[in-house]
Design goal:
Chain B: Belongs to the binding-protein-dependent transport system permease family. Chain B: This is ABC transporter permease. Chain B: Pfam families: BPD_transp_1. Chain B: InterPro entries: BP-dependent_transpt_permease (IPR050366), MetI-like (IPR000515), MetI-like_sf (IPR035906). With 307 residues, chain A is mostly helical. Chain A has a domain of 159 residues: MetI-like fold (Orthogonal Bundle). In chain A, helix 5 packs across helix 13 and helix 9 packs antiparallel against helix 10. Chain B contains ten helices and no strands. Chain B has a single domain, classed as MetI-like fold (Orthogonal Bundle). Helices cover 69% and strands 0% of the residues of chain B. Chain B has 283 residues and is mainly alpha-helical. Chain B starts with 14 loop residues before the first helix and ends in an 8-residue tail after the last helix. In chain B, helix 1 crosses helix 3 and helix 9 runs antiparallel to helix 10. Chain B is elongated. Classes of the chains: A mainly alpha (307), B mainly alpha (283). The interface between A and B is large, with 49 and 42 residues.
Chain lengths: 307, 283
């Protein structure tokens, strides 16, 4: 187990280094931050630019700057925004809770819907409820998330005037954003639940439970579902990356004050330190969750550790 | 057609296959014939006819957009961008991925290690974030988007091919080919490749669908193709402003994406049952 943990941690560190290196490199392609920082500051001489470069450490070679960024990252310092010099960590810290709240709301919706539907599909394998759920899940997988969001706004905000079309105020503002990502996640998860459940239903302890005369609900939701939960939690955990990617887009439609909105504002203003901060934090989040899921899985299932 | 070679021809009635072929074939045909169907190219501006609802005028079955252009023509022509991005990027990724996967699985060593580590990185970084960063820096456009999609997706094929090679390379038919001195290139492409291509085709179909979704998201966000070229994502971004008054401008381009992607997903699902019965591509 110690070897598995060590290897898995090493892998995570490597991924963090690679991801931050790629992002820093991309950001450096944008040109001279000193010139961008000096935009709108009136007449700027070459000597001024030199002083800015000196102050920001931009006259250092790329690798030295990257190491500086890593050093900052270790203590939670992501640099300063080009716009007004606010700490990037403050901006990200303010937007992160909104994104996480939406992510967990979407996961909750998807788990609440996909478990009963997936179990229903597995139990009625090959018959019409299974086929219907399969087709519905394929349709769900084919929705562009941003268009689903627009259609929900058209229906529930414009036509029926039931829900607020944008912003994050009160529980009602969560309904449409969480439903958008929840529907799309459910489409994948229903199939996962169905497949895992089919494997479990073949096992002997399910037969024993049935032979004892337990009710169908108890067999399915207590005995079988509990044994499915380990692979399912792994899959749900691994989805987090894709989920955050989707939320970044959906936030844009709902004007949700999260990391996606922050990233797009940064793109529009060419505020690259903020963009770098958002992407670094999102990637760290995904890497950490994947790591935790893998370790948890390794703890529970000894077969995983051997890989 | 491909399916004639397979015993699953008996499943021809399969609902998924028929619906998938109808959707993908119909949409692709309409897009390919769009020059002939809509000689005006959907670019004739007619402000007197702006924002006409569907069926209000027989000349405009889906209505008109804010500049009075025929929405049906624009939806059909706009599909070209999506199909191009979807197909070209999947083809590029599949070619690189097959070569890298064959080499890394067959020879192992440093290339194998690089491919697997690259896969770790790719798993940790959602494409949309990578795309936002690079497009903000180097600019959008068709070519850049295709290149980005290829860079981020070849690894999936490399992993899939690598896994198959590992399970095939100790089998008798490969060992005997090695024993009689068949060259490596021939073993890779003539002996191994045909035996592992099924799951690759399945993954490719699903990837075309996924790429169309990604392209339209990026264009919708203003990070994709030039807004002056008609594209589904671009039309949706434009139509959003008129959501209160003219629903059709936002509904039809999105419906076009949904139906295209659904058709490809149906075909992919059907192909999976046919070409990949052991389910290597299922999760």
């Amino acid at each position: 187990m110690a070897k598995f943990l060590f290897y898995r941690l090493l892998q995570a560190v490597f991924v963090v280094l690679a991801v931050t290196l790629i992002v820093s490199f991309a950001i450096r392609l944008t040109g001279d931050p000193a010139v961008m920082l000096a935009q709108g500051a009136g007449s700027i001489t070459e000597a001024d630019l030199e002083r800015i470069r000196e102050a920001l450490g931009l006259n250092q070679p790329f690798i030295a700057q990257y190491l500086d960024f890593l050093r900052g990252l270790l203590v939670g310092d992501l640099g300063r925004s080009f716009m007004g010099g606010t700490q990037v960590s403050d901006l990200v810290g303010r937007a992160l809770p909104a994104t996480l709240a939406l992510a967990f709301a979407s996961l909750f919706v998807s788990i609440a819907v996909s478990i009963p539907l997936g179990i229903k599909a597995a139990v009625s394998r090959g018959r019409w409820p299974d086929q219907l759920i399969r087709v519905l899940s394929l349709i769900g997988l084919s929705f562009p998330n941003f268009w689903l969001a627009i259609m929900l706004v058209l229906l529930f905000s414009i036509t029926f005037n039931l829900l607020p079309p944008s912003g994050m105020e009160g529980w009602s503002s969560f309904v449409m954003p969480a439903a958008t990502m929840g529907i799309i996640l459910t489409a994948t998860n229903v199939r996962l639940v169905r497949t895992t459940m089919l494997d479990t239903l073949r096992s002997q302890y399910v037969m024993v439970a049935r032979a004892k005369g337990l009710s169908n609900t108890v067999v399915l939701y207590k005995h079988a579902l509990r044994n499915c939960s380990i692979p399912l939690i792994t899959y749900f955990g691994l989805q987090f990356g894709g989920l955050l990617g989707g939320i970044v887009v959906v936030e844009r439609v709902f004007n949700w004050p999260g990391l996606g909105t922050l990233a797009f504002e940064a793109v529009a203003a060419r505020d690259y330190p903020v963009l770098q901060g958002v992407i670094t934090v999102l990637s760290l989040l995904i890497i950490t969750i994947n790591l935790l899921v893998d370790i948890a899985y390794g703890l529970v299932d000894p077969r995983v550790r051997k890989d | 057609m491909l399916s004639l070679n397979f015993p699953s021809l008996r499943r021809f009635k399969n609902f998924e296959f028929i619906l998938g072929i109808l959707l993908v074939g119909g949409i692709a045909a309409a897009i390919l014939l769009s020059g002939w169907l809509f000689p005006g190219g959907g670019s004739d501006i007619n402000l007197a006819m702006r924002l006409l609802p569907p069926m209000a005028e027989s000349a405009y079955p889906l209505g008109t957009d804010p500049l009075g252009r025929d929405l049906l023509a624009r939806v059909v022509i706009g599909g070209e961008i999506s199909l191009k991005v979807g197909v070209y990027s999947a083809l590029g990724a599949v070619m690189i991925g097959i070569v890298m996967g064959l080499v890394s699985g067959y020879y192992g060593g440093i290339i194998d290690m690089l491919v697997m580590r690259f896969a770790d990185v790719q798993l940790a970084l959602p494409f949309i974030l990578l795309a936002i960063t690079f497009i903000a820096v180097i600019g959008g456009g068709l070519t850049n988007m295709i290149i980005l999609l290829i860079i981020s997706q070849w690894v999936q094929y490399a992993r899939l091919v690598r896994g198959s090679v590992l399970s095939l390379k100790d089998r008798e038919f490969i060992l005997s080919a090695q024993a009689i001195g068949v060259r490596d290139v021939r073993i890779l492409f003539q002996h191994l490749l045909p035996n592992l291509i099924g799951p690759v085709i399945v993954l490719m179909t699903l990837n075309v669908a996924n790429n169309i979704l990604l392209e339209s998201s990026l264009t919708f966000l203003g990070l994709g193709v030039d807004p002056s070229v008609p594209s589904w994502g671009g039309m949706l971004a434009e139509g959003r402003t008129y959501l209160q008054t003219a629903w059709w401008v936002s509904v039809f381009p999105g419906l076009a994406i949904l139906l295209t992607v659904l058709g490809l997903n149906l075909l992919g699902d059907w192909l999976r049952d046919t070409l990949d019965p052991t389910g290597r591509t299922s999760l």
